[in-house]
């Protein structure tokens, strides 16, 4: 079923929405339609019937700079019917393609990435600290193309144009907003199978504020559903296998296991890789985490262990993972530093 084929100038015939520059929006939608983005233009017109859609179009027409990742018409064929039939979900789709800021002249080669804050802030999809909106990440790969990261389908930028304050990056797929840890791990099974098994093996008593009860939850479940804003340094499967001689000695020591987990975690703050270089943070256990970036890569240190970040910025609704090549075998804690972090 082919949707969003409305003429790009449909917005001009809709009721005037306070704060929208309809002259500019009409120009933008006409440019999208002329550039092979008729369905995205029609989508913009469609979501203008919702408060979220109206806010998106208000911001796009405000004169501030944005990057709009614009899927080709054929890219919309893969959208499932439960989304195409729901205008509120369509507004969320559009919001994740609109990135605040001017990135002209910015180019990063993976594993360095460019990261921008989108307009997606639906709390059913985004649970970042401070009610921040979700981000999207992109980088130049070895094939010479700019790839959008964390996508089920490998999405690349085909060409770039601009209309006023809007840079339009044509992409060959509709972008997927970050999904839960439970969904993301199987999609990245080469790197994260080992850490999933390890995190599911260990449990801690946790207090559920909504029920005022204390129950046991695995480390995996804590990351998946119980934190709002976090950064976790996830050892890859090879790293887990390489630490098998050390971890068994901790299995009978719940305190040490908790410290080990917490020394891979920055709680309450989502720190993306562009913000790590040369920075110092405090782990959830109260131990220092330090970072360096040099010609050989990006590294994190805890205690006397240094690991390389081999896959940065695995985006999640409630935080971010950075995949590392060693387990940070640090079981030290500093309760005072942890409480003030």
User: Beta fraction of the residues?
Assistant: 25-35%
Q: How far do the termini sit from each other?
A: 52 Å
Order of helices and strands: HHHHEHHEEEEEEHHEEHEHHEEEEEEH
Helical stretch tally: 12
**What is the approximate shape?**
elongated
Main sheet characteristics: 7 strands, mixed
* Average pLDDT over all residues: 90
Specify the helix fraction band. 25-40%
**How many strands in all?**
16
Contiguous uncertain segments of 5+ residues = 5-9
**Cα-atom radius of gyration:** 22 Å
Structural class category:
alpha+beta
**If strands are numbered along the chain, what order do they take across the biggest sheet?**
2-1-7-6-5-4-3
Explain this structure to me?
It contains 12 helices and 16 strands. The protein has 341 residues and is of the alpha+beta class. It is 29% helix and 27% strand. It is elongated. The protein has helices spanning 10-13, 22-34, 38-47, 51-60, 81-84, 87-96, 181-187, 189-201, 219-226, 237-242, 254-262, 335-340; strands at residues 66-71, 98-100, 114-117, 135-140, 146-148, 155-163, 166-171, 203-208, 213-218, 230-235, 265-267, 280-282, 288-294, 297-302, 305-316, 319-324. Helix 2 packs antiparallel against helix 3 (38-47). The strands form 3 sheets. A 7-stranded mixed beta sheet has the order 2-1-7-6-5-4-3. The longest helix is centred in the first third of the chain and has 13 residues, at 22-34.
